[in-house]
Specification:
alpha+beta, 8-stranded antiparallel β-sheet, 5 helices, 8 strands, 25% helix, 19% strand, disordered N terminus
């Protein structure tokens, strides 16, 4: 187990592009379930800067994890969730301008612990622009060869054959887990560097029919780590 944990965090620490020489900004999410420390990719500067702006403006202080699906992901960032009534459907609050997509596949992919921007579906958002506020943290599954073959079929349908899982990505998904069916379609702009155990706990909480936790799980404060 120690070897797996060490190998996993070595994978997370590798830069996605060789030209990524600047220090990556980090943000601490203090939640009522524990702290999550995330690192933002310089390779996705629009999303990086938007996220840092949101943190400085207190956008994430007090918001809920309003969509939680085990073995998949946890989602947050809806500002209406801050004062939401029990059972209120969340995730549809109006925001400002959407962020242009910065999809850097296959260098950056949906490995476990990835931070990615939520967005509207392709039908209304063909350019796959990102939500200004909402994001999700990937958990996913460790994948078998057969599962990855099925994922590739799904990706072929969703992307007209444009997104292909390389042997290296297949190995990473088999060893560490993630959500490969989202690759090439959503902007991944960061990763968890501490607090995967917190995400694991959150993903298993009891939820309603809209995947909202029955007992609120809240980001108390988000802070840029200087």
């Amino acid at each position: 187990m120690k070897q797996f944990v060490l190998s996993f965090f070595l994978l997370l620490s590798l830069p996605s592009f060789s030209q990524d020489v600047l220090p990556r900004p980090q943000v601490l999410l203090e939640t009522d379930s524990g702290n999550i420390r995330i690192e933002l990719y310089n390779e996705t500067p629009l999303h990086r800067d938007n996220f840092l702006k949101n943190v400085r403006e207190g956008i994430y202080d007090g918001v809920l994890f309003h969509r939680v699906i085990p073995n998949f992901m946890i989602q947050t960032g809806d500002t209406l969730s801050r004062h939401a009534a029990p059972g209120q459907v969340l995730g549809e609050s109006k925001e400002g301008e959407k962020i242009p997509a910065e999809i850097r596949f296959p260098e950056i992919f949906h490995k476990r612990g990835s931070i990615a921007a939520a967005r509207e579906g392709d039908e209304t958002n063909p350019d796959r622009k990102s939500s200004q506020h909402q994001f999700y943290i990937v958990w996913g599954r460790r994948m078998s060869d057969n599962m990855l073959d099925q994922v590739q079929d799904r990706l072929d349908d969703a992307t007209n054959g444009q997104v292909k899982l390389t042997p290296e990505l297949r190995e990473a998904y088999q060893r560490y887990g993630g959500t490969p069916h989202l690759d090439g379609q959503y902007t991944v702009f960061g990763q968890v560097v501490e607090g995967l155990d917190v995400i694991d706990r959150i993903q298993w909480v009891e939820t309603d029919s809209n995947n909202r936790p029955l007992n609120d799980i809240r980001i108390i404060k988000a802070t840029i780590i200087e």
